[in-house]
Every structure is written in C-alpha cells, then in structure tokens.
Hints:
single chain; mainly alpha; 66% helix; 6% strand
Amino acid sequence: MINNFEEYTHDLTEQEINIANLVKTGLQFRVGKNTAITNKEICKALLTKYNIKISDSRMRAIIHYIRIFLLPDVIATSKGYYRTSDVLELQSYADSLTERIGAIHTILNQIKHQIYINQKQTNENI
C-alpha cells in the first residue's frame, strides 16, 4: 500500500485476482500498439461481458499485478495497454518510466527541502 492512497493501492482481493486472470486472457492477444486497449475500455468490457463493475484506480492496480506476475511485456502509452517484444519499444517505455521517476524524485527533494526550512523556522521561533 502507498501511504495516503490506501483506498486505491491496497493488495488485490481474491475477486480482483480472478479479474486479473480475465484481463490477462484478453491482454495476451493485444500485441502491438495498434491493438492497445485503454483502462476505460477494459472496465467497460468487464461490465458488458461479465457484469463486473470496477473503478479506474483498481483496474490500474490489477494491471500492475498482471505486469508483475502474469504478463511482464505489457506496456502503456496514451493509446492504452498492449504487449510487445520489440526491444526499441521496451527501451522507450523503460526510458519513460525513468523520466517519470526522475520527475517524482525532483518533487520529493523539494518537499524534503521545505520540511527542512519549516523545521528550521520552528526551531528559531522556540
């Protein structure tokens, strides 16, 4: 779980693991960018085909589980999720993840700096 996001990032339930297996079955045939499917499209398909209603945020948690444990070659773009074995696509996706991590790290450093400033000001006022 991620602090302050527990409602969205808690471990998958048994039912959600079953949903992950359904989604994996569909994703395994989505090879290539032209077959990409969005989070919203997956949620809509689950509702239409299986009468399963699931939120966008829980679907992201399910996709995360699928990528870690079931289909490691699933990547995401603005077009949606799909599988690829293309080394250049995988490298581009890895680069994108690295850049996003860097952006988050920059925010983290700024927040830590602000904590330091606030603590220093508090100590000076004592």
